[in-house]
Design brief:
single chain, alpha+beta, Heat Shock Protein 90, 2 domains, two-stranded antiparallel sheet, 10 helices, 64% helix, disordered N terminus, Putative two-component system sensor protein
């Protein structure tokens, strides 16, 4: 509650200070530079001008811009703005004529000369018109900028919600098929190598804990993300035949800094999804290194056509397209993704660099 009130108070204070500054210019700076005794009617006229400036400013801000300009009624907006300006000018002119201000001003500046009525000097009216239009222009700019900021905030919020939903989708896709298949592999291991099966269960439980608890946060520690990758690859290794050459190299000493959870998994998951053949020799290479605050992931795998009917394919995660969007939303220009899939070796290569500073 307090946080929502503070910006309003700051905005109100800014408005008050700006109008005080304008009032000082209108009532003090210009009149005092003339060094004459001005009639009280002049001060009323200046006050009337300031009043019309304020009325035009807020009328434009809260009615004209939202109800006309933002609804595409541009010509109506321009017409109403010009009409209001001319109306204010007409009222000011009528006030001057009513109190006989031209003669009073003449007597203040040139009391020794008799007053002779002259045609109205429209340069003063032009100044008043420009002053009112300037106020309308400023209020229009303020509202447009505020709307742009609000819209930008809403877009960021929607994109962030989309990222969150995509992450939840990724979690949901990883959970069923991967965990069930891994449990089946572990069950088979219990009849062959009990110790290895126990280690696999430990890795699986650690992965489940990470997916359930760490991914609910905006960031996790790099060490936990890398442990998750190690466990994922080792459990996937249980399902691979001798025809698959799997090489995982993760830099031993890395700085434990925050990173978005499950950010690296789609690239590694993609290796197993497209880089493994049941009949042909396959290879998967995964390298993770860190230099300063920059994390680098490299993956290499042979390209094989995926089986669209397999459950693994149906539950394969959010895909690299959505991962690119997630990287852009979270890290922007601080990350660089390079994908090479057109080479003589028929390899799919990815290189991801993220500045985690």
């Amino acid at each position: 509650m307090t946080n929502s009130i503070k910006p309003r108070k700051i905005t109100l204070l800014i408005h008050v200070l700006v109008w005080v500054f304008i009032a000082i210019v209108i009532f003090v700076v210009s009149p005092l530079s003339w060094k004459v005794d001005l009639p009280i009617e002049y001060w009323f006229k200046q006050g009337l001008t300031l009043f019309f400036l304020m009325v035009g400013f807020y009328l434009n801000m809260y009615l004209m811009v939202p109800r006309l300009l933002f609804k595409g009624k541009t010509w109506a907006f321009v017409g109403v703005g010009i009409s209001i300006t001319l109306l204010f000018l007409l009222i000011i002119i009528q006030f001057e004529n009513l109190v006989n201000l031209p003669e009073l001003m003449h007597n203040s500046f040139r009391p020794e000369k008799p007053y002779l009525p002259k045609p109205r000097n429209f340069s003063y009216d032009l100044f008043t018109i420009l002053l009112i239009l300037f106020g309308l222009g400023i209020s229009t700019s303020v509202v447009v900028i505020e709307k742009w900021q609000i819209d930008a905030g809403l877009r960021r919020q929607m994109e962030q919600e989309k990222v969150t939903s995509e992450l939840s989708y990724l979690k949901a896709q990883i959970n069923p098929h991967f965990f069930f298949n891994t449990l089946n592999n572990i069950y088979s291991l219990t009849n062959i190598d009990v110790e290895r099966a126990q280690k696999a269960i430990l890795k699986l439980s650690r992965m489940m804990r990470y997916v359930l608890y760490e991914t609910d946060k905006d960031t996790t520690y790099l060490s936990k993300e890398l442990d998750f990758i190690r466990d994922y690859v080792e459990l996937m290794r249980l399902r691979l035949s001798d025809k698959v050459k799997l090489n995982l190299e993760i830099q031993e000493k890395t700085e434990d800094i925050p990173i978005a959870p499950m950010l690296l998994l789609p690239f590694i998951e993609n290796c197993f999804k497209h880089g493994v053949s049941a009949k042909l020799e396959s290879k998967i290479e995964i390298f993770v290194s860190q230099k300063g605050k920059v994390l680098e992931l490299k993956t290499v795998n042979l390209k094989f056509p995926a089986n669209p009917k397999s459950k693994e394919e149906l539950g394969s995660g959010i895909g690299l397209t959505n991962t690119r969007r997630r990287l852009d939303l979270i890290y922007g220009n601080k990350c660089k993704l390079t994908i090479d899939e057109d080479n003589p070796e028929n390899e799919y290569r990815t290189q991801l660099k993220i500045d985690l500073a």
